[in-house]
Design a protein that fits this description.
345 residues, alpha+beta, eight-stranded mixed β-sheet, 28% helix, globular, binds N-oxalylglycine, binds nickel (II) ion, Fe2OG dioxygenase domain-containing protein, dioxygenase activity, Oxoglu/Fe-dep_dioxygenase_dom, iron
C-alpha cells in the first residue's frame, strides 16, 4: 500500500527507481504539432454506413488507433465515470487499503506501476484499479463499495462501452469482409476495466506513466479525460493523442491483429506524465474468453496470403504476454508461423 505513487509523490523528489533508461525516456516531450490520430464520427454510420466503415478500417490499418465522437455514450455517463474514478483515487488510503494487492490473480485490485512491481527493473508513475466486468452480476459484488455511486456508474459505463465496442467490431467485420457477428460471441465475451491514475510528477522527462506496449486483448475503449498524456508510436515517431471533449479513444489489441492476419495494426503506445495535474484514464479492455481459440480468420487467408499465426488459446497468449512484460514483438513470437510452414498449411 505504501508503494502507491499517490501515497508519497508530493513529499519526495523523483526516486532513482523511477528513472527510465535513456533510450526510453520521454525527454522534453516535443511532439510534432498537427500529427495526431484520426477522429471518426460514428453518428455518420446512420446516413452513410459505408463511409464510416471505410474510416474505421483505414484508421485501424494505418494507425491501429482512433478517436470516436457521436459514439452514443452520453456526456453524462462519461462525466459520471471520470468523476467517480477520480473520487476513488482521492479517497484517503485507509478507505482503499482492503483493495490493495500485489497478487495478479485477484479479480479486483488496486496496485501500482506495471505488471510486477517486485521483479521489474524500474517503476512507472502510475496507480491502477483493475477489475473484471464479466459476468457483470457476479463481479460487480467485488467492485469498490466506495464512492457509494461507483458500482452504479461503472455498471452503466461498462454496459454502454461494451455496446460501443461491439458496434465498432461489427463495422470492422463488414470492412474486412468477415461474416456478420464474427466477433460477437467468445471472441469478445470478457471485459476488464483498468483505471489508471498518474499523479503530478516532479520530472516528467525522466519517467513514464506506462511503458511502450500493445494491448493484449481484442479492442480497447479509453476515456482519457482532459489531460494530455497518451502517445502512439507511428513510423518511428511518437504522436500525441489530443484530448477531445466527449471523445473516446479506440485501439486495436493483439488479438484483433492476429484474427485479421495483420490487416489491422496493434499499435504501440505509452503514457507520459506531467508536473501540474493528476491525470486519470478509464479503459475497457474487450477480450476473448480465456478458453477461446484465436487464429487468423479463415476467410482472410489463402495461398497468396497464408496465415501468419498458429491457433492458440487466449489464456496461453496472456500468460506468455505477461511473462514477457508486455514486450510487443517478443510477446507475439511463439504464435507466429514460419513463412514456409504457413505456405504449406
Ligand atoms: C492502457 C493504456 C493509456 C492511458 O491502460 O493499456 O494504454 O493514457 N492507457 O492511460
Ligand atoms: Ni494500452
Amino acid at each position: 500500500m505504501e508503494r502507491l505513487v499517490s501515497n508519497w509523490y508530493n513529499h519526495r523528489a523523483l526516486p532513482e527507481s523511477y528513472i527510465c533508461p535513456p533510450e526510453t525516456r520521454p525527454g522534453k516531450l516535443s511532439i510534432p504539432s498537427g500529427d495526431t490520430i484520426p477522429v471518426v464520427n460514428l453518428g455518420e454510420a446512420l446516413i452513410n454506413r459505408s463511409n464510416t466503415i471505410l474510416n474505421v478500417l483505414r484508421a485501424s490499418q494505418e494507425f491501429g488507433f482512433f478517436q470516436v465522437v457521436n459514439h452514443g455514450v452520453s456526456e453524462k455517463v462519461l462525466n459520471d465515470t471520470m468523476n467517480v474514478v477520480e473520487e476513488f483515487f482521492k479517497m484517503p488510503m485507509e478507505e482503499k487499503a482492503s483493495l490493495y494487492s500485489e497478487d495478479p490473480n485477484k479479480v479486483c485490485r488496486l496496485y501500482t506501476s506495471n505488471i510486477n512491481y517486485g521483479t521489474e527493473k524500474y517503476h512507472f508513475w502510475r496507480d491502477i484499479l483493475k477489475h473484471h466486468c464479466h459476468p457483470l452480476d457476479d463481479c460487480i459484488k467485488l467492485w469498490p463499495q466506495k464512492p457509494t455511486r461507483y458500482r452504479d456508474v461503472i455498471r452503466t459505463f461498462s454496459v454502454e462501452g461494451k455496446k460501443l465496442g461491439l458496434t465498432i467490431l461489427e463495422l470492422l467485420t463488414e470492412g474486412l469482409g468477415l461474416e456478420s457477428g464474427y466477433f460477437k460471441k467468445d471472441l469478445s465475451e470478457a471485459m476488464l476495466l483498468v483505471a489508471n491514475h498518474y499523479p503530478p510528477c516532479p520530472d516528467p522527462s525522466l519517467t513514464l506513466g506506462l511503458p511502450k506496449h500493445c494491448d493484449p486483448n481484442l479492442i480497447t475503449i479509453l476515456l482519457q479525460g482532459h489531460t494530455f498524456g497518451l502517445q502512439v508510436f507511428k513510423d518511428g515517431q511518437w504522436i500525441g493523442v489530443q484530448p477531445l471533449p466527449n471523445a473516446l479513444v479506440v485501439n486495436i489489441g493483439h488479438q484483433l491483429r492476429i484474427v485479421s492476419n495483420n490487416k489491422l495494426k496493434s499499435a504501440e503506445h505509452r503514457a507520459v506524465t506531467n508536473s501540474k495535474v493528476a491525470r486519470t484514464t478509464v479503459g475497457l479492455f474487450i477480450s476473448s474468453s480465456e478458453d477461446s481459440i484465436i487464429e487468423p480468420a479463415k476467410s482472410l487467408t489463402n495461398a497468396a496470403q497464408p496465415p501468419l499465426y498458429r491457433a492458440f488459446r487466449y489464456k496461453e497468449f496472456l500468460s506468455y504476454y505477461f511473462s514477457m512484460m508486455g514486450d510487443t514483438e517478443l510477446a507475439l513470437q511463439p504464435f507466429k508461423l514460419p513463412f514456409n510452414q504457413s505456405v504449406i498449411s
